[in-house]
Amino acid sequence: MKLLQVDFEYHGPMGEEMSKALVELAESINQEPGLVWKIWTESESEKLGGGIYLFEDEVSAQNYLQMHSARLKQMGVLEVRGIIFDINQPLTSINRGPIES
């Protein structure tokens, strides 16, 4: 399992408006190879959008990051920050993280 953290400058709709506007995108993300789940992140005060993703393996996470970065750049996002992390499953389990061992 690999965790992908992505964030970028975002001035679009947030909150309920974002939820309504991006339903199709959210549904399409479920079809990405290796995706287990995604948590959507937003910060109106910092003008940031992004997400935390769990992928089955590093190749899937890297492929998604490459595709998503290109998609965001086509939408006018200049800089996409993406980091792929290993997960410490024993400690995550202690803190009830949504990770299956």
UniProtKB/TrEMBL annotation:
Pfam families: ydhR (PF08803)
GO molecular function: monooxygenase activity
Coiled coil: none
Keyword Oxidoreductase in annotation: yes
UniProt keyword terms in alphabetical order: Monooxygenase, Oxidoreductase
UniProt xrefs under InterPro entries: Dimeric_a/b-barrel, YdhR
Protein name: Protein ydhR
